[in-house]
Target: Single-stranded-DNA-specific exonuclease RecJ
Amino acid sequence: MIDSHYEWQVLADETTQADQQLADSLGLPVVMIQLLKQRGLTSATAIEAFLNPSPDEINDPFMLFDMERVIDRINEALMNGEHITIYGDYDTDGITSTAIMYETLMMLDADVDFYVPNRFTDGYGPNKAVYERLIQQGTQLIITVDNGVAGHTAIDFANEQGVDVIVTDHHEIPQELPAAYAIIHPQHPESAYPYKHLSGVGVAFKVATALLEEIPQEMMDLVALGEIADLVPLTGENRVLVAYGLKMLAQTTRPGLQALMELAGVGLHEVSAEQVAFGITPRLNAIGRLESAKIGVELLVTQDPERASDLAQKVNQLNDTRKQIVADIVTEAKAQLAALDLANQKTIILAGDGWHEGVLGIVASQVVELTHRPTIILTQADGKLKGSARSIADFDLYQALAPHEDLFTSFGGHAGAAGLSLPTANLAALKTAFEQAADAQDVQLGMKAPLIIAEKIPFEAVNEQLYAAVQKLAPFGNGNEQPYFEITGMVTDIKQIGADKTHLKFNLAANDTKLAALAFGKGELGAGLLIDKAPLNVVATLSENTWQGQTSLQLMVKDLQQGGLAIIDQRTNKLRPDIFKAPGQYVFFNPKVMQQLLPYINAESTAVALTNGDQLVDNVSTILVDLPKNLADLELLKGYQYKELRVIFYTAQHVYLEALPTKADFGKLYKYILGHANLPIRAELSKLAKFLQIGENQLSLMITVFFELGFVRIENGVLNSLPNPAHADLTSAPSYQGWITKQAIEKQLIYSKTSELTKTLAQLVSQ
Model:
């Protein structure tokens, strides 16, 4: 049995006759009507408008409060030759916002440069020390992008120096706005702008449109990047901007983007929001996580192909470094998790020496995914802790941590994420406060994170026509999520793929039809899947895979579950202490092997010698440690209920791949024995094997056969022939027959494929 990682929640109602009629009138599969209803679209008119985004939905930028004032001030700066500095941010939204504003002002022949704050030295948003430096260097007008709405101190300083600051931002508006020259914000309290959810790059694009007095279509590729990266809702105006932006991205002439997309494996002919989110965004975000994000802006705006190629290579290398840093920290974090009492702990706080602070949010998200608990990940240096927090759906991080600001040297965030720093001495108090907050908000242990499923559909409904229809809902993202479907079939052709076998590839089959399926990060489940034994339920999105010019439908699996007995293949030829850490009952077929390994079995587990008459306990994890002497010993596994069956089948000596000695081999050895008295066989076995050109294992077997049949005697490790031995068939010796039996057992239990082994054991224990 394989249980689901998430709690599956199916949204779809039963299909009605009206649904079918609407589907027929629109030429859509009826499944699509459920998907559209879930988006609040119930009429043919609303559906047509949603499926066909129009530029008419792009709002007039002058509807934004203060836009005329901003355009007048920038035009004044242009006429007077004032030096303008664009003050950006280090994530993808900030990088693209900076690039758009910089390109726009360059098109207008402005005296302009840009500054991207450093995450580690400048922090987020307006920094007084940086503003002071920029002003000393000649800046006469500062335009912020994707930041500034909370930058009171730095903006007040600029005002004192006679330098105006124009803020363009989309982040949460504070109770008191800074004293900027103007603030462009879709949620400005005095704004009548009809769409409130633009990202930073969306706001910058609005300023660019107003300045240029037309929509700069050539910049919409950058708009798509920033909007998708910042996870703003892909509804309304954002949906239109991203839809057209993706089309521009597919034909971008930016050398930097072309080079980066090639390295990311993103096609230039058709680009999806998913490709941006998983291929381009992580690479651009990696820059600011590890060093100055200035090169990200340079990558986007340069027209020099050679420079673009160099920058793209550097960005790609930074992303590879970022992934390795994350992997290393996650490994250490998992080791810390293993030492925690998670059964009685609702929250998690982990700290490590020298963990890279630029990736702690990613690590926190991964720990939340693993444990479904609110998590804080901290790095420690010089008696200080700094880190990131991530939450689960039913726990408000800000509400939990804000009342304890006295513990922090800095703190900020919202319900789902937060950043904080504190003295190391306050860590224990933070752990107590965090756990108490989980109690106060009634966080329930053992609850799975919800996974919203659009609809459970029959296997035969999954086809190219459905895929094409679903794609009409794109671009997918926050507020317009790609639909998950629940699909059932039989699993075949399982493969663990990836450099470290962490991913799973298989086919889902029904009625002589197969669907390819890919499950990232679920490689360890492959050994437990029952092939052709029990139906497999998967929750997946639909995608296409192109290989050698052929395109086929593919399921991208988010979660899966399967009834029946889970048989997990852990076969190995080298035992390690960590194998025995997991709680369960460890089954041995050889009592001597059990005695040798008892010290490694933890106190929560039991050791069972089945061949000694020991009994198993039902419904616990059962681990078959050593190899049975014969297949009949496996019959002792019948009649029990298993939570899961883990298979090691260790044996110290493998014989399956070694040939049985021939009659000529026996003759050669016997002739040698007759010519040599008092052979120190125990001490000289290796030398004798080399001399006779026979393998050591075969030589040991042959000597044992001679001993069992009365051809030789062995005393104190010394071998001599016996006079006038009785004639006997060499193959009748018990050791010879045992070798044959062991070869057969190894063939079936050790050298078989996982699918063959699981089928054998499943049939056996189900009898």
About this structure: The mean pLDDT is 92. The two ends are 17 Å apart (CA to CA). The first strand starts at residue 7 and ends at 10. The longest helix spans residues 305-338.
